[in-house]
C-alpha cells in the first residue's frame, strides 16, 4: 500500500508544491541534496541528447559512435542512484503504511525514529556490500590501482565509476537517515514536554 494523505481539495496546490522540497527534518544535508539534484536532472537530458546524436550519426551519416551508448547508460545509472537519495530527503519514497496510518501524534513520531534507524542500518549494510564491489572494481588482484572498464570498443571506466558513486550515495543516504532519526526524536521529545 502506498502512502496516501487526506488533503482537502483547496489545499492540493500547496501540498503539491510542498512535495518538491526536502523535509524540514532532513536538515542542511537534505537541502544540499535537493540543490544538487538539478545537476542529475540535467544529466538525464544529456543522456537523451547523446542517444539522439547516436541515431543521427548512425542512420543519417552512417558513422556510429563508440561512446554514445555507454555514456547515456552511465548518465542514466548515476541519475537513478541519486534519485533514491533525493526520495529520502523529500520523503517521497514508497512505503507500506498499514501500521503507520493507525498511529498518531507522539507514537507516529517514535515510529518515524524507528523507521529511520532501520533504514540507516540497512543502507549502512548496503554501503559495506558496495565497498566490497568497489574494491574489486578499483584494484587488480595484484593490488595495483586500476578502474574496471566495460570491455567494449570504447572501454570506458563507467562500471567502476558507477560502483564508486553507488557506494558514496549509500554512505550519504545512511547519514541522511541518521539526521532524520535525530530530528524525529527531538520532535518527539518536544511533543512529550508540551503534552500536545
From TrEMBL:
What GO terms in the biological process aspect are recorded for it?
C4-dicarboxylate transport
Transmembrane regions listed in the UniProt entry: 38-61, 73-89, 110-131, 164-185
Q: Which domain of life is it from?
A: Bacteria
Give the Gene Ontology MF terms in alphabetical order.
transmembrane transporter activity
Q: Does the keyword DNA damage apply?
A: no
Compartments, record wording: Cell inner membrane
Q: Which residues form the Tripartite ATP-independent periplasmic transporters DctQ component domain?
A: 48-172
- Residue spans making up a coiled coil are none
- Name the keywords, alphabetized: Cell inner membrane, Cell membrane, Membrane, Plasmid, Transmembrane, Transmembrane helix, Transport
The yes or no answer to whether the keyword Transcription is present is no
**What does this protein do, in the record's words?**
Part of the tripartite ATP-independent periplasmic (TRAP) transport system.
Q: How does it assemble?
A: The complex comprises the extracytoplasmic solute receptor protein and the two transmembrane proteins.
Say which family it is in. Belongs to the TRAP transporter small permease family.
Stated name of the protein: TRAP transporter small permease protein
Upper lineage is: Bacteria, Pseudomonadati, Pseudomonadota, Alphaproteobacteria, Rhodobacterales
Amino acid at each position: 500500500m502506498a502512502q496516501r494523505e487526506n488533503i482537502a481539495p483547496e489545499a492540493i496546490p500547496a501540498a503539491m508544491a510542498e512535495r518538491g522540497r526536502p523535509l524540514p527534518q532532513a536538515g542542511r544535508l537534505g537541502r544540499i541534496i535537493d540543490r544538487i539534484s538539478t545537476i542529475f536532472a540535467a544529466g538525464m537530458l544529456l543522456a537523451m541528447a547523446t542517444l539522439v546524436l547516436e541515431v543521427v550519426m548512425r542512420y543519417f551519416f552512417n558513422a556510429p559512435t563508440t561512446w554514445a551508448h555507454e555514456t547515456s547508460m552511465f548518465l542514466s545509472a548515476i541519475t537513478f542512484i541519486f534519485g533514491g537519495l533525493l526520495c529520502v530527503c523529500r520523503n517521497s519514497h514508497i512505503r507500506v503504511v498499514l501500521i503507520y496510518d493507525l498511529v498518531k501524534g507522539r507514537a507516529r513520531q517514535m515510529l518515524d525514529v524507528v523507521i529511520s534507524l532501520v533504514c540507516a542500518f540497512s543502507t549502512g549494510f548496503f554501503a559495506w556490500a558496495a565497498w566490497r564491489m568497489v574494491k574489486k572494481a578499483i584494484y587488480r588482484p595484484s593490488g595495483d590501482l586500476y578502474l574496471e572498464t566495460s570491455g567494449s570498443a570504447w572501454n570506458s571506466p563507467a562500471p567502476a565509476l558507477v560502483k564508486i558513486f553507488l557506494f558514496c550515495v549509500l554512505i550519504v543516504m545512511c547519514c541522511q537517515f541518521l539526521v532524520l532519526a535525530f530530528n524525529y526524536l527531538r520532535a518527539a521529545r518536544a511533543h512529550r514536554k508540551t503534552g500536545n
